[in-house]
Amino acid sequence: MADLPTNSGGKKRLLIADDDPDIRAVLRESLEPDWNVLGEAGNGFEAVRATERLRPDVVLLDVSMPIMNGFAAAKRIKQIMPDVLIIFVSQHSDAAYLEEAFRLGASAYVLKRAAMTDLGLALESAMAGRTFCSLIERRAGTPG
To answer: Of the candidates 135, 13, 11, which has an alpha carbon nearest to the alpha carbon of residue 83?
Structure first.
């Protein structure tokens, strides 16, 4: 993968999309000053529009958002910017969510409850062209 564009300060550019403003604030605070957080979106539709306008290197997406969920937004974002890195940050720990995220081209899937420890690893992995996922629970009867 070719080097992604950076801003003049050399920091990678990131967009945060989550319907909870408190989650967005915590994510922003934990990522700055190492990342240039270009903006925030409160739903999937806003995430698609912001991606078109801001052209981030990485988009952090919640799965469960109003108007357009994170999976639908990821599909649209990948159509607009095929090389953008998508990292889902979600409360959903079911393996089916993880499978759908990676089917849509996500680079990582991070559980919100593990975000403070896993997000840095997920970003580092994604930037190196590797995938990452938080520990996902398997339901009884799920092959594994």
So the answer is: 13
Per domain, the residue ranges of the chain are 13-132
Query: CA–CA distance from 101 to each of 40, 71, 83, 131, 139 (Å)?
Result: 20, 7, 16, 11, 18
Superfamily of domain 13-132: Response regulator (3.40.50.2300)
Could you say which residues of the chain have pLDDT below 50? 1-8, 140-144
126 closest CA partner among 105, 112, 97: 105
Q: 82: which 2 tokens?
A: 């095929």
What pTM does this model have?
0.86
Other beta carbons within 10 Å of 117: 10
How confident is the model at residue 3, as a pLDDT?
38
Q: 81, 51 in Cβ contact below 8 A? A: yes
